[in-house]
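Today's session is about reading a structure prediction critically. Students often jump straight to the picture, but the first step is always the sequence itself: look for stretches that repeat, for charged clusters, for runs of hydrophobic residues. Only then move on to the predicted structure, which in these notes is written as discrete structure tokens rather than atom positions. Here is the chain we will use throughout the hour.
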Amino acid sequence: MTESNGRERTVPAGAGDAQAAGVRANDTTAFAEFRDEVERVWNENSAYWDEYMGEGNDFVNVLCWPVTEKFLAVEPGQNVLDIACGNGLTSRRLGRLGARVVAFDLAEGMIARAKRRTSAADGKIEFRVLDAGDEQGLLALGQERFDSALCNMALFDMAEIEPLFRNLYSLLKPGGCFVFSMVHPCFNQADATRYSEFEDRDGELITTYGVRVSRYMTPSMQRGLALRGQPTPQPYFHRPLDMLLNVGLKAGFVMNGIEERAFPATHPPGRHELGWGPNFSEIPPVIVFRLQRQ
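Below is the predicted structure for this chain, in token form.
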């Protein structure tokens, strides 16, 4: 399945199942007024998302995890922080690689689901309910405790990201890295629409697939149904790449890895012609970064 995945939004508001819209700000990446709504919505959606996602789908297995695993380069015994862990699918993968994992999520319902899915065979994993914007809660995890940190497809779910980047720098050991994947803000966001065009070109019938982008530079909050049938539309937050990365650079990180991820042309088609899949093999719906503490 290529259309959608847990905490990996692939049908943004403004395309497909879009509902409602628009708060915009020209000079900030923070939308603190939506923090409570984010917590409420993810608790309401936790059971549906967990049952839909299970242990991952094509977005996880094909796009995100191969690069994430490579960028993290986890060694047995390392301490890894899994941020906004959802139902714990990446936590369990890290644990099975031999990492000692501390995993947290804002939604108590998600953490309950994560604990339910996790067994001793998944390694050493400690789950906590914690808001990534809670500076005191983050610092209580332990300064210079972690060899690396992961945030898998969740930064765009966060009303504020500055507290996370600022405090994560001190949680990592010198030389530690922060790897995060996210929907590509250039191509997979509320104001980007996937399309197909059909033409008769000199007697040959050609279908062209692409993405039209009508807005990018302005940070925005939109509400959308990432999964068809989920109970409640969730807020998510578009930030252009320069604003997003400058938050990390200002915190002291250096970027030393980036990879844009698209489904290969040989990937099996999904249920919908315009769903992310082989028809869009030249357009990446996902981007992965690696930042390092000096």
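Discussion point for the tutorial: Residues 1-25 have pLDDT under 50 and may be disordered.
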